[in-house]
């Protein structure tokens, strides 16, 4: 912040007035005047220091409250993280430890704990093997049990920590997560940087004090430990301390109660430094006194008028600052030292006010985007609900989550991801209406609160916001296009309180993401579905190692020759807890939990192992495996495919990797690069579900694909006289014109088969030919088919 420029002095300055005054004073009057000036100066300094100490105490209270609130908000973000809740619910200790460590690093936490619902320590990062941790955390858990969350201080490893405790809900409470900041040197230095005076955290230790942390030099800190007067400061008295040759004005106040012992914040203002200007002035006045005996009387009047009044104004201003009033500045008269001091005081007052305003803003707003935070938005939502209840109106919550944002972070870095979030915030800020509230919930989730909006109006606004984000933009010479999934919940249809409404909008958003739709309104029963997803995600982590996955194989028939040329490997999961779980349900969960990479590699390896002898015996020519969107941007995929082909002695041309049109278009550049590497190895590539995406033919021509698969939605009712036949004919012609094989899936009737044959389709698969079969049953089916075509 720029401070006021000191103007050049004109006329007789402050020092000149003192010289002139001393020439007019008598010796006796001068001695009395010197005593009055000295007492007044020291009193003014002490009053000013006292007011600064009280202001600093208020700053501590604001800093402590802000730190506790921000700490609780940060811990709440972790507790609400979907993957963390799942890990806590399934007691996945490794994942929990990584999450606690990563989140603790992001918020500069000194300690992180995961506690069982009963208080037992499951994971501890910071105070290692402290047997008293459970007992020290017990009071905070009692408060959190009563109020839903708690902040306070606990003694861990004999050190005090400011801790925030938040329950982990999935959806019932499965654990407590706590993170904290150490009352140590770092916090003391940070506080000293704000208030400009030395700080010590102390405890009463009988006749002396126990110093927990201090910004004093080491010699003064050692003297503080031995000072009996310091114990009086802890008892509540403001005292002067002599510490290793330096003099301090000490003021102490309670910081926190730790295990029955009171931790005090002791502020130490350097009296020597504060009184030094006045001591120098006194010496100068004494030197001039010998030359000013005859005019001392006149000088006393000048000093009384020219010195006492400005000091009083400074003291009054200090009291106003102590009361939290920063708006009224001191009047500045003249251009002497007192005028400079008044300007400096005004600058200090303005900076303290702005600092408090920044602290209040940071406590309720997101630092990256400047948008309101979750806690602030929750309070606004509750007020909107109250107004809607009073006037019989609706209000709505939209939760917007960016698709593929993790891929942006992973591939381009977190700094680039932050820049993307800033652009998203700016676009949304320009798109929301004046009475709407836009907030950032954390990560890539944003919140929009709508006044007087029912479900239909809220969905329309959500679609408009999604369209705003879909327009590509350039950032650091990179073209970025974003999609978003938006969940909608409306008061009073879906909930009657802010927390439940927010949670159900969040559930609707996850459902929208799983169903690959842009906007979805919360539906009754989604809570149970969400709970099922949480449970499935928990057991999905162990499904591979427990061998719960199996492959089924569905043949592809070459139409002109009626031979079985390829077989598609289809993954199935039978869970002991949930029975048969369809791929449409568990594949999105695997993508969200990061398990899809391991699952895809398992399918590739198992499919090649099963198909290797079939290919070697001439039973089939190749096997097809589906890839997910995350697989296609996996930089290690090509090396893994090459390794498994060599391990199972399968020619690369016998492996067909199927990717959906939508998958390729999500990140065209990365997908194209990986597809070229795979094609360079000799692996065949197929565009699955052709016709359901939104890509252009020019984009498809740039991809190294060998075949396209017409989606079953166009094939199933070919004989019903609708427009599907026109679409299929166009797809076949496009594929052939591009030099590609054309495969039709979902063939379930002889009429559809006949039409496809007449249109020149190359291959077909579907229930008319065969349902997906286990490996042994597939081999038996092939043997029967070679003797004569078999249906179903």
TrEMBL record:
The chain crosses the membrane at residues 20-41, 285-308. SUPFAM superfamilies: EAL domain-like, HAMP domain-like, Nucleotide cyclase. It comes from the Bacteria. Pfam families: dCache_3, EAL, GGDEF, HAMP. The keyword Transcription does not apply. Keywords: Membrane, Transmembrane, Transmembrane helix. Gene3D superfamilies: 3.30.70.270, 6.10.340.10, EAL domain (3.20.20.450). Residues 533-786 form the EAL domain. Residues 393-524 form the GGDEF domain. Residues 305-357 form the HAMP domain. Coiled coil: none annotated. The keyword Membrane applies. This is Diguanylate cyclase (GGDEF)-like protein.
